[in-house]
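Methods, example record. To illustrate the input and output format used throughout this study, we show the complete record for Aminotransferase. The sequence lines were provided to the predictor; the line carrying structure tokens was produced by it.
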Amino acid sequence: MALSNRARRARDASEPMMTFFTRVANAAGPDAVDLTFGNPHEMALPGLVDAIREQVEPRTVDWFAYQNSRPEAQEAIADGLRAELGLDFEPADIAMTQGAFGAIELAFAALADAGDEVVIPLPGWFCYAPMLRATDLVPVEAPLDPETFDLDIEAIARAITPRTRIVVVNSPANPTGRVYPKATWDALAEVLDTASAAHGRRIWLLSDEPYRRIRFDGIGFASPAGSYPWTLIDYSYGKVLLAPGQRLGYLAVAPLVPAVERAELRESLGSLQLAIGWGWPDSIMQRAVPALEQVSIDMTELTRRRDRVYGALTDAGYTITRPEGTFYLWGRAPGGDGDAFFDALVERGVYVFPGSQFDQPHHFRITLTATMDMLERAIPHFVELAQPEG
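The corresponding predicted structure is encoded as:
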């Protein structure tokens, strides 16, 4: 066999998503209503285009030379994090990465050894497990509360073993849209401290925050970095800019990480980025960061879309988790069969994300990054397929 064991495990973990992605890509025609991935369906934000255009024209001979983490990007991000999270981030705490994908990969490489376990939320992002399998790490699922989709602290505690090295949390959460309060992080910190002491090994927290700036109704945001010192934060600009194809993100070392560990991470992340395959963003995107820090998806329009679709579906009898953040709606499929619901919608030219991709076969996810026209065309089909849940 050509593939390594870890490559086969990663392939097997990725196969359901790759099959689904290929099916949608091959079947969805130009008139289809595609509510699957968080892709743009309108022209790019003007601020994004302006920021990139400003950096395209080279001003020095090394404009497009090899680049690691650029200082102006690190400084702008540290300033933003201090303002947002109230923690004393410094530029040296920031490692620029190829989106949140690159930041998560870097965190796994920095903290965990082959065979270590990483606790991930369920439902949660479908790429955690394949990424872990590709690096010989072991994903361990910790279910969220099945009714509210709150973080279940007791479930995390039960998932921890002597092999646990990292716990991953995601807020605002994909796919549910939940935003967790500081009290949740305080309770989790107590569990992780207790487990670390019991097993004689520090458990790290990776806070996956790519939707941090996409929140509704004035809901505040608390990062676990303020509650648990041993925290790293990953972030992607692809969400707030609605430009997932422009790979730009970072991994941040929380300021409360004890001094020795903080210094070691600061000094080592660059070497790891080189070792895992030049894990920095392109020069133009890094140079654009100070301007991009001020650019955002239109939250007023996104709120209008959320309220329209949430209202229409709940009026039709669907059970929908009202999102506090992200740009998704998460709901229970009519009859409790997400795959059958997906198939019925496909026959009508509408594509949603079946919950089976999140190991939740009774549910489905809709992206609100579609245009309002697309959403309005989809709503009658949802209404017609609604069934009372028995």
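Annotations derived from this record:
The CA atoms of residues 40 and 242 lie 6 Å apart.
The chain has a mean pLDDT of 96.
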